[in-house]
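Lecture notes, continued. The same structure-token format from the folding unit now serves as the input rather than the output. Read the line below as a description of shape only.
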């Protein structure tokens, strides 16, 4: 299941609970943060469920996919990727109804994007973003080198649950899935275990638990050691993306 489907389920449940569009938008943004759908897309799906729709899946399309690369199609791809940076090329093809080649061309040529740790990000980082990656990587390395327990006390994940818990939130540079354990370590393993599968909302927790139980204990033990190595590699790469230049756990 993609994060896009997760959000659609949340919209569906909010509607069933009697939440207004405004309340639904607020809850989606609170739960998913920067990865939340745009307001217009939340409203669109809210209205679909209000009109009696029950499925969160895209409507099946008939006929051969179009090879169109007009402004409307490009904007559709841009919107979907901004809503869910982990969306796959196949899902974009199914959602919009254009060919795989067209989607690849739009992503790489028209939008200047590439896939890093299973997320679409800008192909080229600005100097400011490179500098931010360098600064944070160096700061994290300094903390780890000066405090032997620093890596042992770290946790990773979405930060929405830590509000009010007096947990220190460490900085993370934007467009940097290669520096986020959730992205470079965990998500692609879920993707490999569950290729192309869809689940009803009630199944998600059980399926997630089963997959996590299959992960070897050493994977989590070495997770932050790999993050330490990635900070070093980021600095050596002058803040550029470095996928493929690091070892994996």
């Amino acid at each position: 299941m993609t994060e896009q489907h997760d959000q659609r389920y949340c919209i569906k449940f909010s509607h069933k609970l009697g939440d207004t569009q405004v309340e639904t938008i607020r809850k989606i943004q609170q739960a998913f943060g920067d990865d939340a759908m745009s307001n217009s897309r939340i409203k669109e799906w809210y209205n679909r469920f209000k009109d009696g729709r029950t499925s969160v899946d895209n409507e099946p399309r008939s006929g051969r996919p179009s090879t169109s690369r007009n402004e409307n199609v490009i904007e559709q791809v841009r919107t979907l990727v901004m809503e869910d940076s982990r969306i796959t090329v196949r899902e974009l093809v199914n959602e919009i109804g254009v060919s795989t080649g067209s989607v690849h061309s739009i992503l790489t040529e028209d939008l200047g994007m590439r896939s890093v740790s299973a997320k679409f990000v800008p192909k080229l980082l600005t100097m400011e973003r490179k500098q931010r990656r360098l600064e944070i990587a160096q700061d994290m390395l300094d903390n780890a080198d000066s405090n032997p327990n620093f890596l042992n006390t770290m946790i990773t994940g979405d930060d929405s649950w830590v509000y009010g818990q007096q947990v220190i939130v460490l900085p993370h540079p934007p467009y940097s899935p290669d520096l986020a354990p959730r992205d470079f370590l965990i998500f692609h393993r879920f993707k490999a275990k569950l290729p192309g599968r869809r689940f009803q909302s009630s199944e998600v927790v059980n399926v997630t638990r089963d997959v996590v139980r299959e992960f070897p204990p050493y994977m989590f033990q070495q997770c932050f050691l790999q993050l330490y190595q990635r900070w070093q590699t980021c600095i050596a790469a002058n803040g550029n993306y470095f996928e493929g230049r690091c070892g994996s756990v």
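Point for the exam: Residues 117 and 222 are 18 Å apart (CA to CA).
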